[in-house]
């Protein structure tokens, strides 16, 4: 593990009843402040207990909506029909944890969360049911590991397993969980042009035919119950006061909207505390003329990043 020291200087202004903070370092996660009480200067120290970010980086993340247009996907992960960008996940990991902490993704796919863990210096644990995606993820992890700083050491473990049996795995206490579930069985809906193009290119248009795959559950209420069950198991692995972020959106099916994000939030609130949401928006998607001159059908280019916390 690579450690570094930090130096800072503080100058007190007796006439302005405030402190001037002087530092030659970008890291402001720890700073000394001098305050005046009863006419006497006293030292106090504000310590960032949550992450390693500076004050300006912290404030930027607090915005309730944000734009994030993913970079082009690696050809190896194109087979996965709904991959999330490592760049997005890394931003959340770096806000909710410090270096060296343990991160979990119980639906790891092709390993976006684990790649983000390597890049941010966190230990990553992932569970993925689909063996094909596990093999892709392990190749990507091996490539990413070769590019690591020689002083950086993180532990990455990926299990080809059913998340319903997570208790059978030797996973340590978790400091943060970030994940994205299947958007119900939407990938099996016919008629989408993108699905047709993927099929013609020999790429997956849905996750698998495995009956344990949540993306194969056709009953909406059963799907919600199954998700809530898995996240209840994750709850037991989380340290007290740890956060979990679920990236999800409401889905449209046969002319009706199913409030997946809201129903999931309600179901998980039985044991988690839903602290807030951030809305991820994309502005680089092509608009489609759904319902043109006939009926209202939106182009949905946003996701909900629901932030839960384990509070006893």
List keywords for this structure.
312 residues; alpha/beta; Rossmann fold; 2 domains; eight-stranded mixed sheet; two-stranded antiparallel sheet; 7 helices; globular; disordered N terminus
Describe the protein in words.
With 312 residues, the chain is of the alpha/beta class. It folds into two domains: 39 residues, no CATH class; 255 residues, Rossmann fold (3-Layer(aba) Sandwich). It is built from seven helices and 14 strands. The strands form four sheets. It has an eight-stranded mixed sheet, with helices on both faces. Helix 6 packs across helix 7. The chain is globular and about 60 Å long.
Topology overview:
Elements: E1 9-13, E2 18-22, E3 30-37, E4 40-47, H1 55-61, E5 65-67, H2 86-96, E6 102-105, H3 112-120, E7 123-128, H4 131-146, E8 156-160, E9 174-179, H5 193-200, H6 220-237, E10 238-248, E11 251-253, E12 256-258, H7 260-268, E13 273-281, E14 302-309
Parallel strand pairs: 5-13, 6-7, 6-9, 7-8, 9-10
Antiparallel strand pairs: 1-2, 3-4, 10-14, 11-12, 13-14
Helix pairs in contact: 2-3, 3-4, 6-7
Write a concise synopsis of the structure shown:
This protein is of the alpha/beta class. The protein is built from 7 helices and 14 strands. The chain folds into 2 domains: 9-47, no CATH class; 55-309, Rossmann fold.
């Amino acid at each position: 593990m690579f450690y570094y020291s930090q130096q800072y200087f503080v100058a007190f202004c007796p006439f302005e009843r405030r402190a001037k903070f002087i530092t030659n370092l970008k890291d402001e996660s720890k700073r000394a402040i001098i305050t005046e009480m009863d006419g006497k200067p006293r030292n106090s120290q504000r310590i960032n207990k949550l992450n390693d970010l500076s004050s300006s980086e912290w404030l930027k993340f607090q915005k309730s909506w944000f734009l994030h247009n993913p970079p082009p996907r690696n050809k190896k992960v194109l087979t996965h029909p709904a991959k999330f960008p490592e760049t997005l996940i890394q931003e959340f990991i770096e806000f909710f944890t410090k270096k060296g902490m343990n991160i979990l993704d119980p639906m790891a796919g092709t390993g976006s969360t684990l790649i983000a863990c390597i890049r941010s210096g966190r230990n990553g644990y992932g569970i993925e049911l689909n063996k094909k995606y596990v093999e892709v993820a392990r190749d990507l992890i091996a490539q990413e590991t070769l590019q690591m700083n020689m002083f950086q050491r993180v532990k990455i473990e990926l299990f080809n397993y059913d998340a319903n049996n997570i208790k059978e795995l030797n996973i340590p206490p978790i400091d943060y969980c970030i994940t994205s579930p299947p958007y119900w069985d939407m990938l099996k809906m016919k008629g989408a042009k993108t699905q047709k193009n993927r099929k013609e290119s020999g790429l997956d248009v849905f996750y698998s035919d495995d009956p344990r795959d949540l993306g194969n559950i056709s009953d909406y209420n059963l799907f919600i119950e199954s998700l809530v069950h898995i996240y209840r198991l994750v709850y037991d692995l989380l340290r007290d006061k740890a956060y979990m972020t679920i990236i999800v959106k409401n889905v449209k099916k046969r002319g009706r909207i199913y409030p997946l994000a809201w129903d999931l939030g309600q179901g998980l609130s039985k044991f988690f505390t839903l602290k807030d949401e951030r809305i991820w928006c994309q502005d680089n998607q092509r608009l489609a003329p759904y319902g043109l001159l006939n009926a209202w059908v939106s182009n949905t280019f946003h996701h909900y990043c629901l932030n839960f916390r384990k509070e006893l």
